[in-house]
């Protein structure tokens, strides 16, 4: 069976993290993603993001976001460059960009500028603050979104300073959201024959992720803050506990798990204790409850507790990144894959999270800058002489 997005072609003016992360989802699912890279500035800025490199213009960071794509060197500031773009768009389902909000229209990358080429074309714009409004021209990055959307007030210990997520979670989720928007709009265009613009912003995604915390405030004026040990605001036990040699995270987010946990801790009577019987009871007596559990958890190692809880109580060891990637369960899930360069060099990375039965995900390493320029321009109808003319004038 073919991958579900086989035959979908996307021309992408993308760089750095959020945009390339979104289109890598699509490339892993079989879409043809054509990266447009400026020949005069080193291409995707992610190629230069250190501190780790496979070689010049080939950083580990770049490889993490650009698996299974193609690359075309093209200067869109030159008229001939825009003509080449239009030829590529003739056979594309979507044009994607993650530029500042005021740039797509100025660069002719929106639907109004491209619909004369294909009426059913989808133009997806991933920006910091959207393409309209007072912040359209503002640059913006993940950590700024976390700060303004309240994340730093929710992360860390109550008596510590505001803290961000350890990962660029807004970049990653905005890229994923943009991929969903693109596929949804292409489905609509195929049904109606009409394309459209689709807008996704870091700021809107950061706000949308507030989810139930936002609903609590908007409907009940409840302001959620930080809880000790990364605890859940209302469910107990659902937090970190120290063990003899580390930490363990327990999440009894259904009442049925608490009696099992109490039994495995050697105190089945706690499940019937009036102060600990229900979520409401445990929340009201949270401090004493957690002290009781902590005393027991400290008597054994994280590994031994996990052996006792496995499959019975929702629990997880607290790992660092190295331990997470070396986890035998990740290996069993084939969670680390080896993509290959045309020369045969392996580039290890995390497997795509969407797995489709009957099809094998492609595993091509991220392309060298401009690796597919000649082949794609030839396919678009350019002769060898025309390609050389464009190269001589530094258009490609």
How does this structure look, described?
The chain has 396 residues and is of the alpha/beta class. It is 37% helix and 15% strand. The protein is built from 17 helices and 13 strands. It has helices at 18-28, 60-65, 79-89, 103-106, 111-114, 142-148, 169-192, 202-208, 211-220, 257-264, 279-284, 286-297, 302-309, 321-326, 328-332, 373-379, 384-392, and strands at 9-13, 32-37, 53-55, 58-59, 70-73, 94-97, 122-127, 196-201, 238-242, 247-251, 315-317, 336-340, 346-350. The strands form four sheets. Strands 5-2-1-6-7-8 form a six-stranded parallel β-sheet, sandwiched between helices. The mean pLDDT is 97.
Low-confidence stretches: none
Number of strands: 13
- In spatial order, strands of the major sheet run 5-2-1-6-7-8
Total DSSP helices: 17
- Report how far the terminal alpha carbons are from each other: 36 Å
Give the proportion of residues in helices: 25-40%
Query: What structural class do the secondary elements suggest?
Result: alpha/beta
Oligomer: single chain
List keywords for this structure.
17 helices, 6-stranded parallel sheet, 396 residues, alpha/beta, 37% helix, single chain
Quick structural summary:
The protein is an alpha/beta fold and 396 residues long. The chain contains 17 helices and 13 strands. Helix content is 37%, strand content 15%.
């Amino acid at each position: 069976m073919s991958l579900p997005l086989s035959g979908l072609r996307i021309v992408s003016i993308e760089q750095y993290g959020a945009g390339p992360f979104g289109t890598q989802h699509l490339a892993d699912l079989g879409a043809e993603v054509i990266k447009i890279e400026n020949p005069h500035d080193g291409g995707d800025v992610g190629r230069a993001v250190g501190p780790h490199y496979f070689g010049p213009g080939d950083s580990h960071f770049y490889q993490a976001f650009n698996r299974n794509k193609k690359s075309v060197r093209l200067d869109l500031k030159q008229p001939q460059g825009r003509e080449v773009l239009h030829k590529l768009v003739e056979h594309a389902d979507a044009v994607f960009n993650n530029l500042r909000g005021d740039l797509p229209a100025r660069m002719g990358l929106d639907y109004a500028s491209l619909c004369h080429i294909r009426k059913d074309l989808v133009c997806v714009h991933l920006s910091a603050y959207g393409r309209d409004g007072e912040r359209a021209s503002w640059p913006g990055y993940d950590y700024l979104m976390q700060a303004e959307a309240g994340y730093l007030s929710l992360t860390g210990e109550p008596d510590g300073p505001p803290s961000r997520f350890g990962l660029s979670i807004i970049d990653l989720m905005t890229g994923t959201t943009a991929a969903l928007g693109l596929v949804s709009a292409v489905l609509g265009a195929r049904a109606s024959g009409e394309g459209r613009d689709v807008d996704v912003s870091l700021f809107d995604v950061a706000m949308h992720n507030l989810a139930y915390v936002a609903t609590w405030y908007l409907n009940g004026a409840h302001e959620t803050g930080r809880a000790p040990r990364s605890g859940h605001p209302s469910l107990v036990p659902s937090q970190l506990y120290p063990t003899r040699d580390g930490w363990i995270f327990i999440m009894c987010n259904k009442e049925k798990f608490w009696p099992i946990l109490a039994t495995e801790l050697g105190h089945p009577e706690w499940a019937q204790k009036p102060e600990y019987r229900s979520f409401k009871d445990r929340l009201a007596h949270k401090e004493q409850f957690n002290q009781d559990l902590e005393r027991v958890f400290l008597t054994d190692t994280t590994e031994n507790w996990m052996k006792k809880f496995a499959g019975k109580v929702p629990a997880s060891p607290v790992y660092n990144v190295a331990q997470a990637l070396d986890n035998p369960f990740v290996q069993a899930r084939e969670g680390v894959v080896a993509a290959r360069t045309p020369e045969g060099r392996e580039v290890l990375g995390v497997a795509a999270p969407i797995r489709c039965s009957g099809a094998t995900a492609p595993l091509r390493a991220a392309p060298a800058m401009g690796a597919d320029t000649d082949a794609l321009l030839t396919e678009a109808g350019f002769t060898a002489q025309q390609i050389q003319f464009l190269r001589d004038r530094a258009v490609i």
